[in-house]
Design goal:
The protein is an alpha/beta fold. It is built from 13 helices and 11 strands. It has a 5-stranded mixed beta sheet with strand order 3-2-1-5-4. A 4-stranded mixed beta sheet has the order 8-9-10-11, with helices on both faces. A hairpin with a 2-residue loop joins strand 6 and strand 7.
Length: 333
Amino acid sequence: MGRPYAGARASCHTAGAGPRRDAPDPLILGVLHDRVASIFHTPIDVEVNDPTSRRPSAMMRCHVEITAPSPKDVALLAPGVSIVSPERCFLQLARTLPLPSLVMLGCELCGTYGRDPEVQERLFQRSRPLTSVARLRDYLAEHASSRGVVRAGKALSCICDGSASPMETAYYMFGFLPCRLGGFGLPAPILNHRINLSEEARLISGRSYHVLDFCWPALGFGVEYDGRSVHTREAAFDADRRRTAALQAMGIEELALTAEQLRSDELLAAHMRLVARRIGFRMQGRSYDTRGRRLELRRQLFGRADGSARPLWPALRVGEPTLREALDTVRRR
């Protein structure tokens, strides 16, 4: 499938160049690669508005965008270098990404995790999402005549808010995408739904609330993903039982999902049949090859999902300049 996305495109402005958007100096690109390699990938996608501004470089790939971004479409990264907003990035990549990849990107932008597509084990948690389904919808409505907006709208109809990991995104896509896209077509749940526990449930659990990974609140049902190893799972067995008992005391049924089930089409199909029965959804047969489409979706999604979490930004070493200081030094040369 290639990368789900190549990182936010850099919209670069050269001081004194008026409205013209030129590609950045290679020295600046070198600093960006050295210091923020976890976000910018090789090559960096650079937005310019004049074909003559293109510069051949192994570190960047220039894209001509005649229409200049509005101020709310860019954020200043450092002097002379801006990055486009998540909404603009989503619309731009809708022109080239396969639909499942675009849905996966949208779930990540609307979720609370981030990852480096080139280094799968590098995963970090955000305090809040970069954007939301509502903000993406508003942005597409404002740019209804832009290239790629129809395809972006199709993907947006399949995107969810609140995913906390690539594996949650994968489960969401397998379970709730339409059958024509390789999913099971089940009614979508709320992701990472907080349940405030009653007094009785608190005594059982020892906590004041629990968060269910996938929840149908009106039906009193949810699915909890357990990506831990067997050894770790056994060590946390008592806590899991208390959580399940606390939810049952509130009339909420919890169904467990393991990484082994998620990685097997047969096991996942059996799991989805249980979910469908519990939420009262009839899984009707389809005339086309639903399993073939599921396997194709599986091929596109995996091995990009992993459950590890590591900080993205390592601490600065003693005496090491910040990114802004490093770029200022380059610009003064």
